[in-house]
UniProtKB/TrEMBL annotation:
It comes from Nocardioides guangzhouensis. This is Trehalose 6-phosphate phosphatase. Keywords: Hydrolase, Magnesium, Metal-binding. Pathway: Glycan biosynthesis; trehalose biosynthesis. NCBIfam families: T6PP.
Length: 281
């Protein structure tokens, strides 16, 4: 783990001391799950389920906060089973799917979800024509129920396709009262109003968090980072960890610590637990 400043190191020490009331929020793709070409073939890092179970025993609560649909991340992450294991220790796992639009917890096991946004069906009807017009007819379109993600990763020139599509999809989304969420070789289109920062605020309130750690890798995590920073301004010990990659650096400037992708994230969590144990003994 590399701290980005002395203040980052101090924040870490305070968070360790506040472990009893610490809530840890984790992004999924690029943080708990290594990035792969095909989104359907993503899988949680082999070591992550065990570490999440261990972590839950060290802190007040843990939550996966993702752009993925909650049901999908439960399957790709084996999170139902993680929830079972947490339950044995009297703990609860929270999942916020689709940028906080969906909620699941290991206690009630039901995904709570709103209706799809009004403009999504008409957006989807127009999408193929716009993709063809932008020479992106072979982009992979991931329909997520409440949102749609247009992936360029498997195209001949992913960066060029992304740059062509971003203004076109932003305009199409605007006409259908939707917003875009750019990410790592992906442009997501979803309803306005909800974002990962709102999920952070909900967790702080419901869990009565006295400290917060958020770990993310991509632009969709910026809202979560900003929400955490607002709580820091109010005096809460917090730590922001960037799961670093060659693809996205937007979080580096906001982060207190940068680690090397999902391997680094799990290394960070192991260190955090060891330091919490040491502080308690
Ligand atoms: O909030 P997250 O958990 O980070 O989810 C964000 C989006 O991640 C997925 O796409 C990303 O991961 C794919 C698999 O590794 C990769 O192929 C793609 O290029 C990445 O952008 C997912 O497909 C989206 O639905 C998520 O919203």
């Amino acid at each position: 783990m590399e701290f980005t400043s002395e203040q980052g190191e101090q924040q870490y020490a305070e968070v360790v001391r506040s472990a009893d009331s610490l809530v840890v929020g984790l992004d999924f793709d690029g943080t708990l799950s290594p990035i792969v070409e095909d989104p359907e073939h993503a899988h949680i890092h082999d070591d992550a389920p065990g570490i999440l179970v261990d972590l839950a025993g060290h802190v007040r609560a843990i939550a996966v906060v993702t752009g993925r649909p909650a049901r999908q991340v439960l399957a790709l992450g084996g999170l139902d089973e993680v929830g079972d294991a947490l339950g044995e220790g009297g703990r609860e796992l929270f999942v916020f799917g689709q940028y906080g639009n969906e909620r699941w917890s290991s206690h009630n096991r039901r995904v709570i979800s709103p209706r799809p946004p009004h403009g999504l069906a008409s957006f989807l009807r127009e999408l193929p024509r716009v993709l063809r017009r932008e020479d992106a007819g072979d982009a992979y379109v991931e329909e997520k129920g409440l949102a749609v993600a247009v992936h360029t990763r498997r195209m001949a020139d992913p960066g060029a396709a992304f740059r062509r599509l971003l203004p076109a999809l932003t305009e199409l989304a605007r006409r259908h009262e939707l917003v875009v969420e750019p990410g790592r070789n992906v442009i997501e289109v979803r309803s306005p109003g909800m974002h990962k920062g709102a999920a952070v605020d909900t967790l702080v309130e419901e869990q009565e968090a006295g400290a917060f750690v958020f770990i993310g890798d991509d632009l969709g995590d910026v809202d979560a980072f900003q929400a955490v920073l607002a709580h820091r301004k109010d005096g809460m010990p917090t730590l922001l960890v960037c799961s670093g990659s060659d693809e996205e650096s937007a979080l580096v400037d906001l982060a207190d610590a940068v680690v090397d992708g999902p391997d680094g994230v799990l290394g960070f969590l192991r260190t955090l637990m060891a330091d919490i144990d040491a502080a308690r003994s």
